[in-house]
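Problem: given the chain below (320 residues), write out its structure.
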Amino acid sequence: MNSIKRYIPDFLEYCELEKGLSNTSVENYANFLARFSGWLTREHLSDLTPKDLTPGHIWRYRVFLSRYISPFTKKVLHTHSQGYYLIALRALLSYFVEKNIPSLPPEKVKLPRQRTRDRVIKFLTLPQLRQLLYAPDTQTKKGVRDRAILETFFSTGLRVAELVSLNVTQFDPSLLRNKKDFELTIVGKGSKARTVYFSQRCLDSLKKYLEIRAYEQEPALFIRLPRSPAQTNNGSSRLTSRSIERIIKYYALKAGLPLFVTPHTLRHTYATDLLQQGVDLRSIQEFLGHSSILTTQIYTHVTNKHLREIHKKFHSGNKL
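Solution.
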């Protein structure tokens, strides 16, 4: 029987060809399992076979992850990050089960328990959101573009990479002209398709942006705008994820909001707003494109607090 390390390339091919995972997902698995492979080498276990893997090995690997210092942050791995490495290992053990290779069952790999404070999500209140949406100066082209970006995030709950990948051909002005609503099918994380919906507010902002948008041959929807008419366009003008993040932080600072505001904060705000309006978690899962309802359940503490305040205010038991 081959060693665990020798099976990893076969597992990655299986993920690509049989499971149909995206290139990004396969690369992530490769990176996470490279850490496990390196740990095996460090522990002089390079020849360890699947059938010889024990719960004791898993425990030692978990201890290693909990104490590992990231070379980038110079801090120990966050429990969420530790979970990603262990999920990748679980997937490898599931592959062994699928291929009838004797091994430790995947369920023997326990994920780290998340602390309550780790689960707290950051989102904007409606007054804060209003401040952010109105921060761009829409008397300028850049301001019109940035207002459209902010409105699109809040209307659709898109991830930043999904927003960056939007193309102008998906927003033909003739299709938008007399519409009060608009929907679009996108392919998001994990190559999963879903429908996103654009509110009237968002459509109004997009229409204004499309009217002033330059570079007719540029396929990207959201593009860099030149500082002067003389500035030439070299290569693609599509805004990058990093550019979008900088734009959000700039307007958060301008609006006097907390520095934690990111594109994902707007995604959290979108989901939280829907939940507080009474939308069920299953629907939120579809809106956000989550593969599992467990991911969507991070928002339940928000609605629990909201319901607690309603109970406290209105329950007749307080008047007895």
